[in-house]
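[audit] Reproducing an earlier prediction to check determinism. Same input, same settings, fresh worker. If the C-alpha cells differ from the archived copy the diff job will pick it up downstream; this log only records the rerun itself.
[audit] input (226 residues):
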Amino acid sequence: MAKKNAKDETIINVDEMYTKTEQFVDKNRNQLTLFLGGAAVIILAFMGYRMLVQLPAELAAEEAVFQAEHYFAMDSLDLAQYGDGFSAGLEEIMQDHAGTYAASRAAYQVGVLNRDAGLFEEAIQAFDQVALDDDVFGPMSLAGMGDCYSDLEDYTHAAEYFSKAADAADAGLAGKVLAPSYHYKQAITLIELGRTSEAKDVLSHIASEHPNSRLYPTAVALGESL
C-alpha cells in the first residue's frame, strides 16, 4: 500500500509540474508571442538584407571591378587605378562599393600601386581600407603598411605592422606562405631599432615554426650572427 501511495504521489507531482508550465505559458502568452515574433522578424530581416541588399551589392561590385583587375594583371597601371573612361578604376570602386569584397581587393591593389609609386601616405590610407578579417588580403595589407613605414624609415611602426601581419598570417589559411617573410621583415626592422634580443626571438620563431620556408636558412644564419 505504501508503494502505491508513493507511485500516486509521483504522478500527482508530475501533473502539478505540467499544470504550472501550462499556467506560466497562459499567463505569459503575450510576452512569449512577442519574443518569438521578434526573433522571427530579426531572422527574416537578416535573410532579407542578405538576399536583397548584400548579395546584389557584392555582384555589382564584382562586375565593376572586373576590367580594372584585368588592367592590373596586365600591368596597365594607370588604367587599372583610374579607369579607361568606360570602366571604373580601382580608386572609384574602392569608394563607390565600400563594404564589399571587391572594394577590399581594390583597396589593396590601390595600396600596392601607391606604394610602388613612392606615395607611401596614400598607400597606407588605401591598405587601411582592406578588410582585415580576410585570411589573405588582411595580412598582405598589414605587411604593405609595414613596407611603407619602413620606406619612410619609421621602423617602430614598421615593426608593429610586420608583427601584426605575421600573426594574422600565422592564424590564417596562408600562414605557411606569407608568415615567414613577414616575421623576417619584422626581425630586420627590430635590428634597425637596436632591439636585437627581440629580433633573435622572431628569427627563432621562423626556424622552429617554419622549417620548410625558403627563409629558414637565412633566418638561422642571421640569428646566429646576432
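[audit] rerun output stored. Observation attached for the diff report: The CA atoms of residues 23 and 29 lie 10 Å apart.
[audit] end
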